[in-house]
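Suppose a colleague, Dr. K., hands you the sequence of a protein chain of 138 amino acids and asks what its three-dimensional shape might be. Before reaching for any lab equipment, you can write down a predicted structure in token form. Begin with the sequence itself:
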Amino acid sequence: MADKKRPILIAIIAILTMISGILMIIAGLLGGTAVFTIDLFIGTEFENWMAQLGVGMLLMGIIAFIIGFGFWKGWKIMWIIAVILYLISVIMLLIAMVLTLMSSISLGWSLIIPLVICLLILFYLTRPKVKEFFGIGG
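The predicted structure, expressed as tokens, is then:
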């Protein structure tokens, strides 16, 4: 992608995603390390939970880092994955808003900010220069 100019917001999203991936990898590794330490003091149920959490964070961190790197490089597949994930996020946020507003827990309105952020990112990803950077036609 040396011949294509990287949009500034794509660079920011890529860097932030890679940083969050690195932090999740570190958290996952620390969670796994904590299992061995906690094993000396607490029973196995908590140990299993911590191990699963550590592995989950490690995997999420690796995926986040790869997505961030793919955004930096302008990989078409990462654009497709991002659009799909943001569409799923919008749907899940809308469902969560409706369910929480219908229940006695009125936290649904607090989901407006993440919903707006997801919609703005989706809008940005569909801009012609951004799509061009990722090699998306049309």
